[in-house]
Amino acid sequence: MTYFKSFCLLETAFVFLFFGSLSNEARAAKHTNVILIMTDDQGGWDYGFMGNKILNTPNLDAMAAGGARLSRFYVSPVCTPTRANLMTGRYNYRTRAIDTYLGRAMMEPEEVTIAEALAPAGYATGIFGKWHLGDSYPLRPQDQGFQEVLVHRGGGIGQPSDPPEGANQYTDPVLFHNGEQKQMKGYCTDVYFEHAMKFIEQNESQQKPTFIYLATNAPHGPFHDVPEDLREKYKAMDLTDAYGFDLNNRRKNEKLFDDTSRIFSMIENIDQNIGKLFQHLKKIGAYENTLVLFLNDNGPNGPRFVGSHRGTKGSVNEGGIRSPLLAHWPAQLKAGTVNDRIAAHYDLFPTILAATGVEKPQTLQLDGVNILPLLKNKVENWPDRALFLQWHRGDQPTPRTNAAIVTQDYKMTFSKESEPGKLYHLANDPRERKDLAGEKSALAKDLTRQYDTWFADVSSTRPDNYDPPRIHIGNAKEPMTVLTRQDWRYAGPKGKGWTRDARGKWLVTVEQTGAYDIKVQFTKQQADSPASLTVAGGSDLFHAEVPADRTEHVFKHVTLHQGDQTIDVKVVEGSIERGPTMLSITKSESGADSQ
Questions:
Q1: 515 and 558 in contact (C-beta within 8 Å)?
Q2: How high is the pLDDT of residue 593?
């Protein structure tokens, strides 16, 4: 743990122990629980209360009616950036988490998460579902303030970081409970909610406040394993109104209809679990004093209804970066409150601190602001502000590339660094069709200047600002380090980071020189000839000839030297050179070092 992070957490603990980090109002009332729920690839209009005519979301509709809602809430175009913003209250470009794979979905461990801010004030902290900010020490959720952890690895079940035993299944998934791989029973979303409900019930019995981050991987693909009864329901429906635009040829869209029926079945399953959660909160006496927040992480994972807007996941058009923010807290929030002031995911960190009465460490710099006054509708002169959102593929961000600056009335978007930005008046032009940059040149120049200032600021947070974090090997907190294609740095042809013939390297820090066992797993060779297997770790080189029918090989008692290393593995089959599917590295139990 870095000095800065240690200082922040020690400061929080000091304030709590000696001065009481809870406000007088919070101490006078029963403790406040917080449950932060975020779905994966559910678009901002995939709800009945948002005008979707097909989807059945009665529990989320009831949550919206029974609590407060921000109608212009923004998230990032894809999931890892949203999660970094959400967990830290800071722009994700400050956190090193800039993309979704190839080592760029790992967050700097120096960053202080909301769980790390709440835990010193006595909160029990738990995460259930998707983390997607690093799978190995010191990047895991249990290294970042979460005491109870039940997650899948990487960006989702069925992706390269998923263990082979999981078989890409959402039903009876293989998950990781406090670092231990476990076979679970039930549908993944049901499993997350069931464990979250048990967690808060246990804490309530001990009169301990709870913070839960419940992040489902549904309705993200793959779509082959969904709640079958709900899929049949939507499959039997006419889905032509599910997209917000005309479908010219139904026959050509059968695949789209089938995918949509599967996505909608996962969303309705989430909604059913929302209903179960609220019933459980009532049962354990935690309903009134639990703040439940709900949002989605980006736009829809395919063409779907996005109201009067356009855009899907990955886009900075409104359809790609909008989410409702629902806040249900009977003790504090008036039912039916709707506020249209702009806000974003990085605002939830300071808002949760305000709701719980936990003080922010003075040395911690947040980019978000407390939006609890908006949720309470107790604002007379809320200041104008600008929101900044950007994402694109690549090893580091490029200025003015798939980026947006959003104000209460206007929005400036940038497609490519070499192209001028476009200005839209969102109230008059929600589909972002009429570019006003020429007509309102002074405003366009001012917003461009603000964007440039922002980009320069976030890009200079650290001297090596966009270098990816390193995975640590040999730390007692993680006896086995698993390296997967999720976190490797790509070394092969462009665009093949996860394909069979891709190559990559891992940036690691070996904490202790010593003997290690390295298990290499790889796809079965297509030829009958042996495969040549080479592992390079810094200046160390290990080689083996592997029979054609093998899919793994263990190098026993090899010496890895302390310090920063690059681990590169080549599986050579004839003229083809590829990377492994994953590595597992453990300290050798006994025996002399050897190759």
A1: yes
A2: 44
Q: Is the pLDDT of residue 531 over 80?
A: no
Residue 32 main-chain phi, psi, to 5 deg: -100, 125
* Residues 47/306, Cβ–Cβ less than 8 Å: no
Helix or strand or coil: residue 316? coil
Q: What residue ranges of the chain are covered by domains with CATH 2.60.120.260?
A: 471-587
Listed in order, the ranges of the chain carrying CATH 3.30.1120.10 are 387-459
Class of domain 387-459: alpha beta
CATH class, domain 3-375, is: alpha beta
Instruction: For residue 311, give the amino acid letter.
Output: G
Between 264-278, 399-413, 506-520, the lowest mean confidence (pLDDT) is in: 506-520
Residue 210 has phi, psi (to 5 degrees) of -125, 140
Pairing label, strands 403-406, 387-390: antiparallel
> Which neighbouring-strand residues pair with 412?
405, 423
* pLDDT at residue 549, as a whole number: 81
Q: So what CATH class is 471-587?
A: mainly beta
Residue written as token pair 């009665």: 58
Query: What pLDDT score does 27 carry?
Result: 39
Please give the Cα distance from 108 to 97 (Å, whole number).
7
Q: With CA atoms as reference, report the closest residue to 38 among 196, 162, 174, 165.
A: 196
Of these ranges, 113-117, 239-243, 246-250, the one predicted with the greatest mean pLDDT is: 113-117
pLDDT band at 166 (very low <50, low <70, confident <90, very high): confident
Q: Any idea what the Cα angle at residue 544 is, between residues 541 and 473, rounded to 5°?
A: 45
Distances (CA, A) of 534 to 295, 309, 495, 569, 572: 45, 52, 24, 6, 8
Q: Where are the beta strands (DSSP E) in 14-95?
A: 33-39, 68-74
Q: What is the pTM of this model?
A: 0.94
Model confidence pLDDT, tens digit, residues 362-389: 899 999 999 999 999 988 889 999 999 9
Please, where in the chain does CATH 3.40.720.10 lie? 3-375
